[in-house]
Design brief:
The protein is an alpha/beta fold and about 300 residues long. The protein has 2 domains: about 5-70 and about 230-305, 3-Layer(aba) Sandwich (Rossmann fold), CATH 3.40.50.620; about 95-190, HUPs (Rossmann fold, 3-Layer(aba) Sandwich). Helices cover about 30% and strands about 15% of the residues. The strands form 5 sheets. Strands 1-2-3 form a 3-stranded parallel β-sheet, with helices on one face. α3 (about 80-90) crosses α5 (about 185-195) and α5 crosses α6 (about 210-220). The N and C termini lie far apart (about 45 Å).
Amino acid sequence: MNSIRGRLAPSPTGSQHVGNARTYLLAWLSARSQGGEVHLRMEDIDIWRNKPDAAAQALDDLRWLGLDWDGDEVVQSAKLSAHEAALAELQRQELVYPCTCSRGDIAEAASAPHENHEGPTYPGTCAHRKVADAAALERPYSWRFRATHTPGFFDLIRGPVELDLNKLGGDFVVWRSAKVPAYQLAVVVDDAEAGITEVVRGDDLVPSTPRQLLIYEALNLLPPRFAHAPLVVGMNGQRLAKRHGDTRLSSLRAGGVKPEQLLGLLAQSCNWLEMAEPISAKELIPLFRWETIPKDPFVLRPSLLEGIGFSG
């Protein structure tokens, strides 16, 4: 049995767009080109942002692209007991502490500006607390992980990566005050339980990797290898949004675009094809190479979508 296990992990918080499709394609091709398995997990723990029918739409989009998966779909929210067990282990080791700080409290205590997507570094206001202190708290609290160091890692696209979590937020939340796991903990537990050996995702999540490696280390779990794909962005260099026009896969489908046309464009963006010629996902398997993928974002100009028959 091949030991390679990749995964597709859509979130039902909105429609899937061309940027999502590129990342899914990379994840699928990497696993399939090694004769490995691809598993599917619906990441629905962000329950306040989930949209009706978005999960079903995401599955339809993946099937339209020709990306299949092995076994049944896993729904992240159904794994709550495993997430709770992981939190209990972190508590047993005193690697987490109850934090009553709001985002406003953290921002007010920050002494210097930080990257917008990361927010200010946590000032350690509640770090003196022990796990047992939670019982006496009358305010809502989250559980925050003690980030004592920053593990480096090798990225299949970026190469060696060294970050400093002290500059990227410091101690981080693994369990929210709403009594649900945060992304960092849930993803680690779910990937480990599924035996995932390879995680492919957008490079906006690079700062998440050392945080997750700390959790893998604490839970004595074997981490996967990582590949962080440059994002697909609009003409202004920002990640895809409504202001860049309609880039939803459902809209491309409704507009008559064939999946092979979009896949050809994505293959060209990765330097697997010289021209954006129609091609199927399976036909791309022997062409897949990590080393040819540009490290800069892929700018999705309107003319590129027009070139595959979509007017937007």
